[in-house]
Amino acid sequence: MTDDHTASPAKHQTPAARDVRELLGLRSTAATVVVGAFIATFLLLALTTAPTAKSLWAEIPAWIVASSAAVTLIRTASDPLPYRTTLALTLAGPISNNLVFAVVPIPIDGLLQLWPLSAATAIYTYMCVRGRTAWAWVGMAATLASCALWAQQTGQGAGYGIGISAINLAPLLMATFFAWTIRPAARDIFALREQTIIRIAAEAADTAILDERDQQLRRLDNLARPLLEHLAADDDITDEQQLVCTLLEAHLRDILRAPILDTADVADAARSARARGVDVVLLDDHGMDQTAIPIRDRIVAAVLEALTRATDGQLTVRVLPPQRDTLLTILHNRSDGTVRTEYGHDGLTRLSPATHIELVPAVAVERNNH
């Protein structure tokens, strides 16, 4: 059985995002205190209105049923309530009432002896708020039927049973109208909240992009402006200035082609290697984007060592694409041969660093190994 007016939250939202408990404060400390008061109050009624001490065999189980239902209402996370939980809550009223009916005197000494009626009404009232209005009415109807049957079987007449329990229809009726009002409003509130979160996340991403762009512009300004101003002021470009320009151009290329290796230590080591005449190529195919920091530091340390030790030839450092067995390769085409070193996803070498390959043209080696 479904409640058409309450059981159709926005399908794109997660259950946590659509939990009406958030809106009504059912997860708050105050709600827990209220449930505690509910349990204590009905325990007191069960103990004080029991006709005799022997009647507690029925009064205590009835109290346990009602108390468990109250706790379940605020602890169950799904919204609307799951069907198994709903069925258990629906049966809580008839079960607790019939337990008490088995021990109360005929006629009863006072309406407080039928305290499960009030407990069941409270449970069904909150079932409406939790999205199971139709089931709440089924439970109330079963409770009224139990009262009528008990009264009829005890010779008091079915009308008497309905008369003493029909007053509980008023709170349930108010809860029904409340559910019709608050639950659609809750869906709108949660939808607006979700849109706000998405918008804030998009704005944060845009801000991060702008901040990164400004940071890169400031970095480029610090790197290139002094050199450009110096070149603009002099007519002649010296060999030293040409070298500085070449090294700066290579560094800027590294920033674009190998951002994962863009650290101050790697930049300094690459600059020093190029100044020694080594042709350094840094490439990043994003295989290290999700690598843990310790392993990334180990890889960077290996790259630094290779750059520091290189004295000639071409040194190509490449971070391979994701889903490869090898994380990074270092290929050094030297005057005395070619050395290729592979590093796995643990940051350790997969081949011996001393492995030599017969000297072949660098282009062919690059094509075969990368």
Q: Give a count of the beta strands, DSSP E runs of length 2 or more.
A: 5
Distance between the termini: 62 Å
The structure class reads alpha+beta
Radius of gyration: 38 Å
Number of domains: 2
Q: Main sheet: which strands, in order across?
A: 1-2-3-4-5
The largest pleated sheet is described as:
5 strands, mixed
Task: Indicate the multimeric state.
Answer: single chain
> Can you count the helices?
12
Report the average pLDDT across residues.
82
Indicate the proportion of strand residues.
Answer: 5-15%
Shape verdict: rod-shaped
- Uncertain runs: 1-17, 352-370
Topology diagram in text:
Layout: H1 20-24, H2 29-49, H3 56-75, H4 83-101, H5 115-129, H6 133-153, H7 158-165, H8 169-233, H9 239-257, H10 264-275, E1 279-284, H11 293-309, E2 314-319, E3 328-334, E4 337-343, E5 356-357, H12 362-369
Parallel strand pairs: 1-2
Antiparallel strand pairs: 2-3, 3-4, 4-5
In short:
By secondary structure, this protein is α+β, with helices and mostly antiparallel strands. The protein is built from twelve helices and five strands. 62% of the residues lie in helices and 8% in strands.
